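User: Fold both of these, please.

Assistant: Here is the first one.
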Amino acid sequence: MNTDSEKIEELLTRSVDSIYPNKEALKEVLLSNKKISVYVGIDPTADYVHLGHSTNYLLLERLHKLGHKIIVLVGDFTAMIGDPTDKMAARVVLTKDQVVKNLATFKSQIGKILDFENKENPIEFRFNSEWLSKLTFEKIIDLASNFTVQQMLQRDMFEKRISENKPLFVHEFFYPLMQGYDSVALEVDLEIGGTDQTFNMLAGRTLVRRYLNHEKFVLTTTLLVDPITGEKMMSKSLGTGVGLNETANNMFGKIMALPDFGIIQVFIDCTRLSMVDVMEKKRRLDMGENPKNIKVELAKEIVTLYHGKEMAQKAEEDFENTFKKGGIPEDTKEVLVNKGESLSKIFLEQGIVKSKGELRRLMEEGAVKEADGGIINDFEYIINKNLTLRVGKRRFIKIKVD
């Protein structure tokens, strides 16, 4: 075990919002040379892990290097319930097939941060269907007896839905019970998660005390939030964020598109850069240096983490070529279509836009352009020639007529 006080202090402060019951108690345990069991859970509600999640895995990495037991838990069962966290409506319940499809590459994505090949201190990769699918109705009633309806209704999103006369479904109350029981099944000492998971993680603290008769620590990590809209900058349910499975070019471009106010927080939460170096970046920003310079360094740092230094350098060059010189990225998607097909149909099928409404808006803004700069604003546009199109700032597509 490593009890380096400076490393432990960084562990307990970097990207940390709150610690339950308190920081001092957890620090005492980490300094005691005791090996603790720690877990982070993630539901496969999409087929990618994003930078917002990476904060938790980077924290797990620091704990792993100190010698502690690490567990990555995939909520394949809880994903079929639907976490109501931060939702103004019930989350769409996923089928088992959707869950299986979504989690296909989870381990490889998270493995870009955590060393799943480590033999000296193996990292566990578990699925909560292992125990939740076996719970009897009698056990579920017993779990529920630890909480009151009033406690459940204190959750902000539930209160808001009730005040707005929106439906609140009984099955949504089961989610914190199930996530809480994960801590019992895993017999963990510490759970880590974003502040949006505080209620669920504290439910686990209650259940561990009841069924295992010991204290479970809860550490909540900071979320990347837009101070203007209040929305999370990285959200699977909103379809936003930078996926760890993005290509190097897409990852670089998306990071460059992040708002300037988030630069330093992303350095803190989503990179391995030392806090000394991060504070130097902040000093440069405070002194009036162009934020774009610092953002390029952030993009390179993150792309290097997931794709390597060489790919990060190439991504920077492609970005400069595309956005400064008006070029087209080398990895632009190319599709073969029949002459006479509608552009809107192709855009929807290829995922260039999410809806006809989005395409109409982009066309009205003059954001659909040919390589030579010509603007396409006809929603009924028919393909009759080869086209290379730029859609908005970062989307490109090459259309070849068969």
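And the second sequence with its predicted structure:
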Amino acid sequence: MPSSSPLPVVSCVAALVAAVAAGCGGYLVRGSTGVPAALWACLAAAAVAAEMAARGAGWLVDPAAIASARLAGVALSLCPTMALLGAKRPQHGVWQFIVASLACVLTLPAVSAALVRPGSLPDVHPLQRWFMPLLVAVGWMNFAATRHGLAAALVAVGQMLLLAGFLPWREVAVAGADVLDAAAATTVAAGGVLAAVQSAAWPAGGRGRARQAAGGDDRGAAVAEEITRPFLALRETLGAAWTLRIVERFNTVAETRGWPCRLSFAGFDAGGAGDDDAWHHEAPRAARALLRRFATDDWLRRHGPAPRRSAAAG
């Protein structure tokens, strides 16, 4: 029989909104290695929406089946974070097989329960119970210091509510109360919509930050504009993990070649210009080479000014 409570319908609609937001996010980050993560998020939200719809329609009433469906949805919801951890070209394509393998491994207890012990709840190993919330925390920390910090926090809270029945300090339980599920789906949807809106509005903010970083030097301003805008846009797309790696690599090159400029998590610092302006041409070229590990030339053109002719030569 269909559920008498409207909350599963609310949860289903919220999950569908999250799926649409993830799809929009995938379009907004097109050309970057963040696209697979957006697609995984869309798939996870669709899976949760399907579970909620089945419960609301009365098609999913067996406790074991509900727990198994929830475990599958939770496993898929962890895939976006895992996809971002391997978001470097050209390995990011093959990395998706590893992400899919993770989803399969996390779902194995549900498959095992269905095949070996029909009608029983999934037997989730304690290591998995700790690993799932840990991966949720990693996903949140990756964006905590970015413009998407609030959106990432909302998504993380929603994910924790969704996997509440599989936390280490609890017995494996059927999906929580309808109120808890509705709160989880709504929170994730709010985070997804907020992230999509912020991504759509990001280019305008990037221009202001680049000018401020230049310190008033016209030549430094051009270099800062060329590096800061796409760098900060990539920071908002992939989070801190890969951005800090780019910072480390760029600063190593800058120190080796004696450039006065440095790159930080907040953007480009032109430093002292001096009389030798060779770094004005070399620094953007080095930064672009690093950014192309995570984005196409088309993405770089969308998120920053066209490279100066002198910087692109050679």
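The two ends are 70 Å apart (CA to CA).
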